[in-house]
Automatic annotation (TrEMBL):
The keyword Cell membrane applies. Part of the tripartite ATP-independent periplasmic (TRAP) transport system. It is found in: Cell inner membrane. The chain crosses the membrane at residues 6-38, 59-80, 100-128, 140-167, 173-198, 229-248, 254-271, 283-306, 326-359, 371-396, 416-440. Belongs to the TRAP transporter large permease family. The complex comprises the extracytoplasmic solute receptor protein and the two transmembrane proteins. PANTHER family: C4-DICARBOXYLATE TRAP TRANSPORTER LARGE PERMEASE PROTEIN DCTM (PTHR33362:SF5), SIALIC ACID TRAP TRANSPORTER PERMEASE PROTEIN SIAT-RELATED (PTHR33362). Keywords: Cell inner membrane, Cell membrane, Membrane, Transmembrane, Transmembrane helix, Transport. It holds the Pfam family DctM. It comes from Psychromarinibacter halotolerans. Residues 11-435 form the TRAP C4-dicarboxylate transport system permease DctM subunit domain. This is TRAP transporter large permease protein.
Length: 441
């Protein structure tokens, strides 16, 4: 074993990221240096070739581009706008109802897109102007969109759940089932945060202390008829039924469900006349760009994981943590703290690819369920979308609104209560792990 080389692997990786190297390049560089030091440069080259072949040479990897493309088509088709309109009409008389409608629409939207930044981009343009028009404070409006956008990475079909399943060699179908209840619970926590804010600070939702609308914001959104509501929400519900219903009923594998979802989204977009040849070409190019970066990261992380295993560091870390007798609570606190720090500087997929190969032997030694561990990991990692300086969701909201008066500080402050809500969910899952496991049995 070359445990010291394993520590050098981590040090070189962190140094590469700090000086601005792309994460994938930093992973490959540190891995090649480590393997060459432990064995030989020739073997390092063979490891790289094997990682490139083995890590993505699998039918299962087809699920990533398919779900990304489906999310892109759904975003471009206007279904996000319709979903928000439905919940806006249903909750229009509730104090804080527009904020709750944003959370509800994000929850439904997440069940199709699987990518948080897509939700942030769509609802920044839809929900924020509507909330601001009805007197919501800038912090609450942008914080609600940025905060609820993280639901896209927890509620299936989630890109992070797919990546975790590939790394941990766990069933993606079981991971999808495991994400349902925690995702619904997180949506309820977010809705409760908005309702409590409306009660304690009615001015932030365009209300007087007695709950009445402010004079300049007295006009309520129009109420839609039942048939109109059904017509607007039906396409999204049909897609959810096709994709998730097909997976959970056993009719489709996740990859097949992704293909069915793309076909369904494409048909709906064409029927709505919201997707022309140029738009389809642009979406295809964006999908290709996203997937190349993800798959390249997976290749790099596979090589890094094998280099770490060759050094013996993961097994050594597992033995060391066991020897420290931190216990379940101590280990979980330390682990979540590490993810929170990494989330300030590194994107979600990269954190998964770097950390999970090291931690899997640890949780196996502690007898923890890898499905539950995946859900806790993803919730903790997604906190990084709302924390400076990286805070990807905050940057997406900022760029989507293109408002010079709206600062990143305003977005981060507005998202802070939702960040606390995510940490509350982690604590709940730690105490009641069955929330994540009851459907995945």
């Amino acid at each position: 074993m070359d445990i010291s080389v394993g520590f050098w692997l981590i040090a070189i990786l962190l140094f590469g990221i700090m000086i601005g190297l792309p994460v994938a390049l930093a992973l490959i560089t540190s891995s090649l240096i480590g393997i060459a030091a432990m064995r030989s440069p020739e073997l390092a080259g063979r490891f790289l070739a094997a990682a490139a072949n083995d890590s993505v040479n699998d039918y299962l990897f087809g699920v990533i581009p398919l779900f990304v493309l489906m999310g892109m088509i759904v975003s471009a088709s206007g279904m996000g706008r319709d979903t928000f309109d439905v919940f806006e009409s249903l909750l229009r008389r509730l104090s804080g109802g527009l904020g709750v409608a944003t959370v509800a629409a994000n929850t439904v939207f997440a069940a199709i897109t699987g990518v948080s930044i897509a939700s942030a981009a769509v609802f920044s343009k839809i929900a924020v102007p509507e909330m601001r028009r009805h007197g919501y404070s800038a912090e609450l409006a942008v914080g609600t969109v940025a905060g609820s956008s993280v639901l896209g990475m927890l509620i299936p079909p989630s890109l992070l759940l797919i990546v975790y399943g590939i790394i941990a060699e766990e069933s993606i179908g079981r991971l999808f089932l495991a994400g349902l209840l925690p995702g619904a619970l997180l949506a309820l926590i977010f809705a409760a945060i908005i309702l409590i804010t409306a009660r304690l600070r009615p001015g932030s939702v365009g209300q007087r202390a007695d709950g009445a609308p402010l004079p300049e914001n007295a006009a309520l959104p129009p109420r839609m008829s039942g048939p109109t509501l059904l017509a607007k929400i039906a396409p999204m519900l049909i897609l959810i039924l096709l994709v998730l219903g097909g997976i959970y009923s056993g009719k489709f594998s996740p990859t097949e469900a992704g293909a069915v979802g793309v076909a369904g989204a494409l048909v709906i977009a064409l029927l709505r006349r919201s997707l022309g040849p140029r738009s389809l070409w642009r979406l295809s190019m964006e999908t290709g760009s996203i997937n190349v970066s993800i798959l390249f990261l997976i290749i790099a992380a596979t090589l890094y994981s094998r280099a770490l295993s060759l050094s013996g560091l993961p097994a050594s870390v597992a033995d060391g943590i066991t020897a420290l007798n931190l216990g379940y609570v101590g280990f979980l606190i330390c682990y979540v703290a590490i993810l929170l720090v990494l989330g300030c500087f590194i994107d979600s997929v990269s954190i998964l690819l770097i950390v999970i190969p090291i931690m899997l032997p640890v949780i196996e030694g502690m007898g923890l369920d890898p499905i539950w561990f995946g859900i806790v990991s993803i919730v903790s990692i997604e906190v990084g979308l709302l924390t400076p300086p990286f805070g990807l969701s905050a940057f997406v909201v900022k760029s989507s609104l293109n408002d010079p008066d709206l600062t990143l500080g305003t977005i981060f402050r507005g998202a802070f209560p939702f960040l606390l809500g995510m940490l509350l969910l982690v604590a709940i899952l730690a105490v009641f792990p069955q929330i994540a496991l009851v459907l995945a049995r």
